[in-house]
Amino acid sequence: MSGLRRFTFAVASVVWVAPFVALPLMATPAMAQEAVRPEAAVNVSGEGEVSLAPDMAMMQLGVVSEAKDAAAALKANNQAMAKVLQALKDKGLADRDLQTSGFQITPRYRQVPENKASSQPPVIEGYSVSNGLTIRVRDLSKLGGVIDASVALGVNQGGEIHFTNEKPDAALAEARKAAMADAVDKAKTLAQAAGVKLGRIISINENTVRPFEPAMMMKTAMARDVAPAPMPVAAGENAYRVTVNVSFALEQ
């Protein structure tokens, strides 16, 4: 019996001491949570925009030729496109500014009248060959003459003309500076209104908006319909926009 009491006393002693060992371990996470506090900050966005006159135009030209057979249509198209390319080079366009952008041979069908007793499939009555060309005009003063010469030599299909800038880096840099100054000004105003001081910059994120490039729709015509005077061109301006999102710490 005395041995049993000693054993029970020993077990009870172990159970009694265990809570004192566990208490410091349970308190540690709570203390860590109290030590980590979110930093007071203000988030603002700034915008900057710089307008720049374009110095280059990009446009699509095309030659469409039709004939009874594909070989004849292709031959006529090749001859017309060769004249257009030579004329563009004579106007001062470099080889790097001329790029074939599409070539297609398409059959032209004639529908058989439906009043016949037997239904027949459409009949091929000819072929159409189209050859597209993307060009860059780096001297905008020559743009009207380039279009006129191209149409006179066989261009009978066209699309939009986009006015752009070859090197917009300087304009984008100015837009970034303006956007950042706008963000700082907004943050100062908010901090002053809240009665706190503006601290260090925590983060900066930039969003550059694709510039709006004015586009002009070009309608081509056959050579006999072309006026002798060069086509008038108005290039306008390109707007380069930058938005920055900035986080500032607040000193309280």
TrEMBL record:
State the organism of origin: Allorhizobium taibaishanense
Per its record, how is this protein called by name?
SIMPL domain-containing protein
Under the heading Gene3D superfamilies, the entry gives:
Protein of unknown function (DUF541), domain 1, Protein of unknown function (DUF541), domain 2
Instruction: Name the Gene Ontology biological process terms.
Output: DNA damage response
Keyword terms of this UniProt record = Signal
Task: Give the source's domain of life in one word.
Answer: Bacteria
Signal peptide stretch: 1-32
